[in-house]
């Protein structure tokens, strides 16, 4: 029975749940013994030494979003056999501290990213932007897009009796991106009294000029909350951090057959096909035009929504993601261990 150790800073974090925990049923079906362990931030070296028993136990260890210093990477390599560095964010930079500011950068953060890429037998990148960042220093890079189980999402209806619900789903720290389009949403709300902005989150904006439906996020209800909406949105700034995002909320919208309007930044550009599954919006005017067109036309919402669901089923299916990820793990589990790139 092959053994895999799945390490993350927080196993309840959305990225860990969608990329790593989603593999557990497939791993069990293929006869893997899988162990999920929390890996604390900081305490460099000590945290690895404390987990040396589990590292020695595993045939393959997956580090999700975890960066190691060069010294800790050597210690980690001494205790572990084969390693996968999994990432779905631009963790070689820091999220901007304010809307419109550049991504935070530091030699220390970049150095840890490089050291972890060199440690890994393979880097599993959530999109092409992240793969490009890893490729110059990694031994092997596989693009494994964060995917979705479409069957878990009921289809939304394009019909709207007296209102159109525009949905945004995400974490509280990402609410700041909605500020980008607040003026456009305010103008749309003034022209379209039946429009509502549904925010599915654990925190909510307080905008008197935009009617907001506050829906507390829960794993059990998120699909239903999207299915009763009509349009999904994902605004993003064009900075290095945002370009590394994997556009997962767009996949959720399209799985629910919602047409989308999105900033064409990073993976958003591939997830939404402009004029087919939704609209790319490059400025406030673009946001206003795209959303108004979808508010006005039930037929357009239905056509884009159906095309979006088909696009997700074809290119972001969970079954394909699991099959490709398990093939990588199985290949590494039977291969002789190699020294980390650049070690010695």
Characterise the protein shown here.
The model has no long low-confidence stretch (mean pLDDT about 95). This protein starts with a strand and ends in a 10-residue tail after the last helix. Helices cover about 40% and strands about 15% of the residues. By secondary structure, it is α/β, with parallel strands linked by helices. The longest helix is centred in the C-terminal third of the chain and has 18 residues, at about 300-315. It has 15 helices and 12 strands. It has a 6-stranded parallel beta sheet with strand order 2-1-3-4-5-6, sandwiched between helices. A 6-stranded parallel beta sheet has the order 9-8-7-10-11-12, with helices on both faces. The radius of gyration is 21 Å and the shape is elongated. Helix 5 (about 70-80) links the parallel strand 3 (about 60-65) and strand 4.
Identify the notable features of this structure and list them briefly.
six-stranded parallel β-sheet, alpha/beta, Rossmann fold, 2 domains, 344 residues, 15 helices, elongated, 39% helix
